[in-house]
Amino acid sequence: MNPSTSTSQPTASSEAAFAPATTDADRSEVARLSAIMSKETIGGGLLIAAAALGIVLANSPLAEWYFGLRDSYAGVQVGEWSFEMSIGHWAADGFLAVFFFLAGLELKREFVAGDLRKPSRAAIPIVAAFGGVAVPALIFVAINWSSPDTLHGWAIPTATDIAFAIAVLAVVGSKLPLALRTFLLTLAVVDDLIAISIIAIFYTSALQLWYLLAAMVPLALYWVVAHRRRDLFRRDLGAAWYMLLPLGLVCWMLFYLSGVHATIAGVLLGFAVPVRPRGKEDPSLPSLAETFEHRFRPLSAGICVPIFAFFSAGVSFSGLGGDGDGLLAPVSLGIMLALLLGKPLGITLAVWLTTRVRGINLDTSIRWLDVFALATLAGIGFTVSLLIAELSFPVGDPSHELAKVAIFIASGIAAIVGGGMLWFRGRSHARAGADTHAEG
């Protein structure tokens, strides 16, 4: 998406809403979402490049070096106490926690001050996100029902990769209504919340309750300090590093030791950051959540997520067999059909059912072909899908590599097909707009 185009159109504020009325808050929300999209576009490009490099190295003469680096251990030691993980686990459990911290910030921002606080606006993308999770999961379960060993991966095709999808949308969607682009971002935010809940509930290893209870102490202190000193942190972000970062690290480590996936700590820490300024503060200044989001998004999109993609995407295609028959295995077939068919069917059907309710309608600038094209693009499952694949099947299990290869193939097809459909829809919208202008 071209940020200058999205913020300078005189009709942007009306397109962004799922209801016709607009306010100054609506216009501010459109500008904020447009800025997020432009940053996620860059992150999506880096994500794709890092994943491609990981795949190339894993299937090259440097494969032994690559896998050796991924599986080597690093950590810290203080006296007799030590904490260490493999580099691959640091990428998935540590670096990706920054991505989930931003997800927590964005989710809280949307629920407190964004579109998700308004039921009339939030209903369609929320229900669409649930449809886009349920139908792919059902397709995967149906295909793997007779294969109990792979059923544990049912959640792999339920996630939509926000950075990857927006990167594609940025290339092909400059002529699409802003309401459609906002719809994708809102759907992806809710999708993230569902994926986070799935990981927390279904992909937690043996729970160590005492560690989990202990994690509540630094989390509560983090909340208190963030709220009490929010004015200081908005002026001096350096103060947040030495006051909040240690609490966040302790909370993250205790979550990891508890058996709950450590990225959940990132989400909860994001929720602990205040979204609204206090009454005595200048409301024109950005909130602490917006300040953190502005500073941490480049770190997440430019470093943390690409590092995760680099180490997680590195799978050897030798596991597919010489004739590629591995793609017909239940786990591979289930993931590909779930992402390529389940996502568009689930999202489109959910939107159709929601609009049957009186008073809930799509924005007038969005057509049903737009919805289906966007739902096809939502079949790009990458970052969170790869993470769930890591949690579903251990390294060395044939399903581990088959699942990741299936994610790559399905995501690539969804990007090409969904992106192509949206490109044609953008041309159609541009022609319709030109005709309307000529008639006027």
From TrEMBL:
Catalytic reaction(s) noted: Na(+)(in) + 2 H(+)(out) = Na(+)(out) + 2 H(+)(in)
Low complexity bias locations: 1-17
Transmembrane segments: 42-67, 87-105, 126-145, 151-172, 184-203, 209-225, 237-255, 261-277, 298-321, 327-354, 366-393, 405-424
Major location (coarse): membrane
Subcellular location: Cell inner membrane; Cell membrane
Region (Disordered): 1-23
Molecular function terms from GO: sodium:proton antiporter activity
Pfam families: Na_H_antiport_1
InterPro entries found in the cross-reference section: Na/H_antiporter_dom_sf (IPR023171), NhaA (IPR004670)
Keyword Ion transport among UniProt keywords: yes
Keywords: Antiport, Cell membrane, Ion transport, Membrane, Sodium, Sodium transport, Transmembrane, Transmembrane helix, Transport
One cellular-component annotation, GO: plasma membrane
Membrane topology: Multi-pass membrane protein
Gene Ontology process terms (BP): regulation of pH
Domain of life of the organism encoding this protein: Bacteria
Entry similarity comment: Belongs to the NhaA Na(+)/H(+) (TC 2.A.33) antiporter family.
Function comment: Na(+)/H(+) antiporter that extrudes sodium in exchange for external protons.
HAMAP family per the UniProt record, alphabetical: NhaA (MF_01844)
Protein name, entry field: Na(+)/H(+) antiporter NhaA
Species this protein is from: Gulosibacter macacae
Source species taxonomy: Bacteria, Bacillati, Actinomycetota, Actinomycetes, Micrococcales
